[in-house]
UniProtKB/TrEMBL annotation:
An example Gene Ontology biological process: metal ion transport
PROSITE patterns referenced in this protein's UniProt entry, alphabetically: PROKAR_LIPOPROTEIN
UniProt feature coiled coil, ranges: 164-191
GO MF term list: metal ion binding
Keyword annotations of the record: Coiled coil, Signal, Transport
Protein name: High-affinity zinc uptake system binding-protein ZnuA
InterPro entries attached to this UniProt entry: AdhesinB, Bact_metal-bind_prot9, Lipoprotein_PsaA-like, ZnuA-like
Matches recorded under Pfam families: ZnuA
Native organism: Neomoorella thermoacetica (Clostridium thermoaceticum)
SUPFAM superfamilies registered for this protein in UniProt: Helical backbone' metal receptor
Family stated for the protein in its record: Belongs to the bacterial solute-binding protein 9 family.
């Protein structure tokens, strides 16, 4: 038993060293200074870690009080910028389940998934097989979000079969809310005269496809993929020619480019939140996936009327 423990400890140290280089560049090195989303611990509950906010929110809604769900991504940190600290990686080995999206959203997770599984941690790559063109923003489509929720429920049941009925009951409630959200978006957006949405980065392709919209993105799949001056000039001309009324910006990324485009085209600005994470103000206000999606819909209607 002692020798086996030494082997596990050595493996953990190697994994932590391997990810330390990644962690050094994230969020300005201030991960430890911000508080991650984590509920009060409940005795006897399984410990479940998630890589970023949408997975945390869905997992918490399904797990209820039967699991301690901890989001590694700190409040106020843009998910494309986030990589875990060595301490957070070490914490994963003390959990029962680790849920991540996969693809370009949390590429650090794939690097440690294999060792976590060897050490007995149940892992779920929630977005596997759902992404198109390497675009990770699948949670913004309520239909794809439903599939993510189902996969999360299956994983929780695998980890904690004694609470199978509880998890499945909560999943049904979540599915009903997502179905209602999908229908609300369909009804609200189907009859609007405009279809173009100019977004600060290319996070809304799945939502646009689901509801017959056209996404015109200022930046690429990550907010850090800024356009060239020539691309920005083409966007200005496009917005003017199509009579765009509003440019959308985000809460966790710099609004500089969206504001520049709005100023050059004489348009207004509105928030279209990709819900990659919450601001401290949103946490304090009790916001979640559904309240933010409702605000997004209101702003979409205003922009497309």
């Amino acid at each position: 038993m002692g020798f086996r423990w030494v082997l596990r400890l050595v493996a953990l140290v190697l994994v932590v060293w391997g990810i330390a280089g990644l962690a050094s560049g994230c969020a300005g090195g201030k991960i430890g200074e911000k508080q991650a989303l984590a509920p009060q611990a409940r005795p006897g509950a399984i410990k479940v870690y998630t890589s970023f906010y949408p997975l945390y929110d869905f997992t918490k809604k399904i797990a209820g009080d039967k699991a301690e769900v901890i989001n590694l991504q700190p409040v106020g940190v843009e998910p494309h910028d986030f990589e875990p600290s060595p301490q957070q990686v070490a914490d994963l080995y003390r959990g029962r389940v680790f849920i991540f999206l996969g693809g370009t959203m949390d590429p650090w997770a794939a690097k440690i998934q294999g060792q976590l599984k060897k050490d007995g941690v149940i892992t779920l790559e929630a977005g596997q097989g759902l992404m198109v063109n390497n675009d990770p923003h699948i949670w913004l489509d309520p239909v794809l979000a439903t599939e993510i929720a189902r996969r999360i429920c299956t994983t929780l049941v695998t980890a904690d079969g004694g609470n199978k009925g509880y998890y499945e009951q909560n999943l049904r409630a979540l599915e009903q809310k997502l179905t209602a959200l999908d229908e609300e978006y369909r009804q609200a957006l189907s009859g609007l005269p405009r279809k173009e949405i100019v977004t600060s980065h290319a996070a809304f392709a799945y939502l646009a496809k689901r509801y017959g919209l056209e996404q015109i993105a200022i930046s690429g799949l990550s907010p850090q993929e800024e356009p060239s001056p020539q691309q920005l000039a083409r966007l200005v001309a496009l917005c003017r020619s199509r009579g765009i009324k509003y440019i959308f910006f985000e809460t966790l990324a710099s609004p500089k480019l969206a504001e520049t485009l709005a100023r050059e085209t004489g348009t207004g600005t509105l928030v279209l939140n990709p819900i990659g994470g919450l601001t401290p103000e949103e946490v304090k206000a009790g916001e979640d996936y559904f309240t933010i999606m409702a605000k997004n819909l209101a702003n979409l209607k205003k922009a497309l009327e």
